[in-house]
Each structure stands twice: as C-alpha cells, then as structure tokens.
Design goal:
- The complex is a heterodimer of chains A (181) and B (173).
- A seven-stranded mixed β-sheet of chain A has the order 2-1-5-4-3-6-7, with helices on one face.
- Chain A has five helices and seven strands.
- Chain A has two domains: 1-31; 46-180, 3-Layer(aba) Sandwich (Glutaredoxin).
- The longest helix of chain A has 29 residues, at 2-30.
- With 181 residues, chain A is of the alpha/beta class.
- Chain A is elongated, with a radius of gyration of 22 Å.
- Among the domains of chain B are: 1-36; 39-100, Helicase, Ruva Protein, domain 3.
- Chain B has six helices and no strands.
- The chains are: A alpha/beta (181), B mainly alpha (173).
C-alpha cells in the first residue's frame, strides 16, 4: 500500500516537473527578451539580395558592412496588406535620401520568391531587398509581424522601432536627426 | 434469307471490333490517367506535408489565407516546371527552415525534442522500480517469508517437545 502511494507520488512529481518545464519554455520563448530596442546595438546578419534589387550592393550583404550609413531596415511580405500602404513611402525616401548616406533595406519575410518579385515590381521598388532565409534575420530582431521597421544609425545602434505602416513624413522624421549627427 | 444473313455478318464483326476497341481505349486511358496524376492532387499532397506560415499549427492544405494560397500556387508552379515532390519540399525547407515541414527531420534540436521525453519516461520507470525495490527491502517480513535459522529450528524442536509432554500429561490425567 505504502509502495503504491510512493510510486504514484513519484509519477505525479515527475508529471508536475515536466509540465513546469513546458510552461517555463513557453513563457521564456514568448518574452520579448533580446528584442533590439532604441539604444541597443542592431544585431548583425548576412542576407542574400534578390537579383534585380541590389542597388550598388553585393549579392550577399552584412549589416555591419553598412556602418557609416543610416539604415532603414524594413520587414515586409507580399501577402501583407499593411505593407502595401508604406511601399510608396519607402521607395520615395530611398530615392530622395540614397545620395545622402541613407539605405533602405527590405527584408522579405515568409514569402515565396515569385510573389515577392511580383510585389516589388508592382510597387516600382528599387531599394535593396533580400530574402530572410529560414527567418534568421526576423528571429534576430524578434519581430512580431510585418510591417516592422528598425531605424539604425551610422554607428549600428537601433534608434527607433515602428510596428505599423509608415508614412513618408514619419520616415523623414526618423531619418533626419540621425543624418544631422 | 441467306443473303440477309451474309449482310449481317460484316455488321456483327464491325460491332465486335468496335466493342473491343472501346474496351482497349478505356483500359489504356485508365493506365495513362493513373500514371499522370492531377496536378491539384499533387499540390494537395505536398501542401499536406507543410505548415501554414502564419497560423500556428495549421496545415497548409487546409488553410484558406492569402499566404497559404500563395504558397500553394508556388507548389503548383514548381510542379508544372517539372520539379519532383521531394524537390518542392526541399525548396520550402531551404527557404523557411525545417519547422515548415509537418514532420521535421529528426536531427539537431528537433532530435532532442524527440529523445527527451523517452529519456524522461525511462528515467521515471527506473526511478519507480528503484523506489519499489528499496521499499520492499525495508518492509517487515511475515513469519512464512522469514528464513528458518538454526536457533529458530531449536526453538521449534523445544516447543514440539513441550507440546508432546503436555499432551502426555493431559492423557494421564
């Protein structure tokens, strides 16, 4: 009788332990944790750019190679309705600021290549765009969805993050202070 | 009558030949159809093996979102371009990572997820057995289970002698 109680106790203890580990894992993975915020260094990454969307950059770029330039890192997807609202603004800012040391860098998230290229063509996009292979970049930045934009200064520090579609004015307001430094 | 019969013979032959031709055509068509499955079925088969990228835990084949429709179109395009089922699955895995598969390959961190519960269960069973053995070793034994030592044997003999004498005294009385 006593043995049985002990055995049942051990099973319950083990089950509670396993459930505890599971819940702890869920909570830890759900926490923003290392999500880069204003003032923190932007996680470095390498990304392969789409063939016709490299501007003056090589096929594979590293964020750290862009040091000295202001980077507007924009996560998007062709299936994202909100992204379409900021597509024109991003392109306009790129055309206006590219000669002033600003680079708009699109990161295509969870997208098929054909759909992505069609989207870029549709919005007459010319700024550099690459594929987020195996979601490595989006994981490093812990994005919550698309569109999401990180403004990175010349020193590679995140200065601002925006989780919504941006207007041209909002982009200019974020870029200008970084250029003035 | 005989002229009529001779006219019917070629007609009957024509019917038989036509019938055989029809049967042969049906058989050949059936085989050809079996060898070239409908592309939409193949898309569905592949989609069944992939996860929806935006709705957690949902199968791509059963998901009606725009993203999934796009992915299914990509599967169809790749099949029409001559890729095999495995090549299409490899493309999705390379682009979106192993977790895009309904059954990710059992390697790396995923292997740990498979092995850990088994190790846990084995450890639990081993722990249970150990506890049971320890407890049963500590439990006081009943008289029947106890081994008979020489001292105890002597006691039993003495007791038997006593009982015999007692019975004898009772008989005398």
């Amino acid at each position: 009788m006593r043995n049985k109680k002990l055995f049942i106790g051990a099973v319950i203890l083990a089950a509670v332990g396993l459930v505890g580990i599971f819940i702890a894992g869920m909570v830890l993975s759900a926490q923003p944790g290392n999500r880069p915020s204003a003032g923190s260094p932007a996680p470095d990454f390498a990304m392969t750019l789409y063939k016709d969307y490299r501007a003056d950059l090589p096929e594979t770029i590293k964020l750290s190679d862009l040091r000295g330039r202001v980077v507007v890192l924009n996560f998007w997807a062709s299936w994202c309705v909100e992204c379409t609202k900021e597509a024109d603004a991003l392109e306009a800012v790129w055309r206006e600021y590219r000669d002033r040391g600003v680079i708009v860098l699109g990161v295509d998230y969870l997208d098929t290549e054909s759909a992505a290229l069609k989207y870029l063509q549709q919005y007459d996009t010319t700024y550099p765009n690459g594929v987020d292979l195996q979601q490595e970049v989006s994981r490093a930045y812990r994005i919550t969805g698309v569109p999401e934009t990180f403004f990175i200064d010349k020193e590679g520090i995140v200065r601002k993050t925006v989780i919504q579609a941006l207007t041209k004015q909002a982009l200019v307001n974020a870029i200008e202070p970084m250029l003035a430094e | 009558m005989s002229a009529n019969m001779s006219a019917n013979i070629p007609l009957r032959r024509l019917w038989v030949v036509s019938l055989i031709a029809c049967v042969l055509w049906l058989i050949v068509a059936g085989i050809v159809q079996a060898q070239t499955p409908d592309p939409s079925d193949r898309v569905h088969d592949i989609a069944k093996q992939l996860n929806c990228p935006t709705c957690a835990g949902r199968n791509l084949a059963d998901c009606p979102t725009d993203t999934c429709m796009q992915w299914k179109q990509e599967i169809k395009d790749q099949l029409l371009a001559g890729k095999s089922q495995q090549e299409v699955l490899d493309y999705f895995q390379a682009r979106f990572g192993p977790t895009v598969l309904q059954e990710p390959p059992k390697e790396g961190a995923i292997l740990v997820l498979w092995v850990l519960p088994v190790i846990g269960l084995v450890a639990l069973a081993a722990g249970g057995i150990l506890v049971l053995r320890r407890v049963s070793a500590q439990r006081p034994k009943t008289a029947n289970e106890m081994p008979v030592t020489s001292g105890q044997a002597l006691d039993i003999e003495v007791e038997d002698e006593y009982v015999a004498r007692l019975e004898e005294e009772v008989r005398k009385a």
